[in-house]
Amino acid sequence: MNLQLIGVNHRSAPLEVRERFAIPESRLPEAVQRLLRYPGVEEGMIVSTCNRVELLVRATNGSVDLRDFVGEYFKVDPKEYEKYLYDLKQNDAIRHLFRVTASLDSMVVGEPQILGQVKEAYAVARAVGAVNSQLDALVSRAFAVAKKVRNETAVGSSAVSVASVAVDLAKKIFGSLAGKHVYLVGAGKMSELAARHLLANGAASIFVANRTYERAEKLAAKFQGQALHFEELYDTADRADIIITSTGAPVAIFKREHGERFMARRKNRPMFFIDIAVPRDCDPELNKIDGLFVYDIDDLQQVVATHVADRKREAQHAEEIIALEVQRFTERLQTLDVVPTIVSLQEHLETIRQAEIDRQRGRLGQLSTEQEMAIEAMTRGIVNKIMHTPITTLKSAAREAEATTVVEIIRRLFNLQQKASRGEQPGDKAEAAAGNGVKH
Fold first, then answer.
1. In the CATH hierarchy, which top-level class contains the domain 2-159?
2. In the chain, where are the structural domains located?
3. Which of 54, 117, 165, 279 could pair with 7 in a Cys bridge, judged by C-beta atoms 3.0 to 4.6 Å apart?
4. Which among 50, 59, 66, 177 is annotated as catalytic?
5. Is 282 a catalytic residue?
6. pLDDT by residue (tens digit) across 72-85?
């Protein structure tokens, strides 16, 4: 399996760079379809969140220059962003996917949202036909590993999310949220999580505005809040002490002129924006207005740091689980690489066995049931003994660099057809051959 992963995340790139690569949820299916059509890409999926944009592909043969795809799709010069991109292959790509899905690569280690986000990316890729058997096996294993990490470590205990960290920041700003009015701009999952944390910490009321008013109504009803039409946003935002915004808009929706208008209506009472959107919903110019403060997703890093020490030991345990799971998955892949040859060898020798029995029947005359069974057992035993050494050699070589050479030698020795060496998907017989399908 030729795996590659390219991307940017909160560790490799600042927010202004991640904004450039963000893919709105509505455009994700089209982006995955474009990726699948790119020369050399056999399967693929894209994960796009506020903290990362990553492309994972299985290449047909060799490697694919995904930097060219990045340049074409995002209309950027890859050289300009080279220092922010990471490009991982094979085991490194597998390990990265496992770590991301298990929330070990998150801004907030142990946060539960990333697993759901990867599952959504996987569902989109499957829906457009971009994920088939091999990538499906990898991503499914990643989900199982994430579950194992959560069950066997305390890395997710007292789980926090970007939304909860944003609320922690609001508490630091105000000292207390009691009696504060909050405005949620955007009715997505992140906004709902923020609302839960805010109410739990004493917020007096919640306003919700969303481009789809029905979604705003639904979210507001959950928390006895008030839904507002998105068109009313600039006329009503000044009612709030805290605005948490996460809309997915391609450009900033709050600009300096809006902030000046809000502060005039509030008679200069402080107003705080917590912008957890990528691209940002708030123009950085807002910070230049007296009494108005803006915190974006990267500013949350400071709050996140307080959680790191408590989770370091559990995270180390989780890393050990990841390392073992990567090794196991890689070994399974390597074994499956030789399975087509094992299956071809089994079928080839079985054909010879059956042909020889049929050829000798005329000479042997009428045989009793016991004699038929004896011939069957004897010939199968001979074939199994012949197969034992080459199959054992293939399985051992699968874990070494010499696997390709050993496969080629055995195929030539037994004059096996070439069709099984061209990456066919192993079926039931192949899986049996990789395990205990051959009796010795």
1. alpha beta
2. 2-159, 162-304, 332-434
3. 54
4. 50
5. no
6. 999 999 889 999 99
As a whole number, mean pLDDT of residues 79-92 equals 93
Return the pLDDT at 402.
64
Selected from 1.20.1050.10, 3.40.50.720, 3.40.50.300, 3.40.50.2300, the CATH number assigned to the domain covering 162-304 reads: 3.40.50.720
Query: Structure pTM?
Result: 0.70
Tell me whether domains 2-159 and 162-304 share a fold.
Answer: no
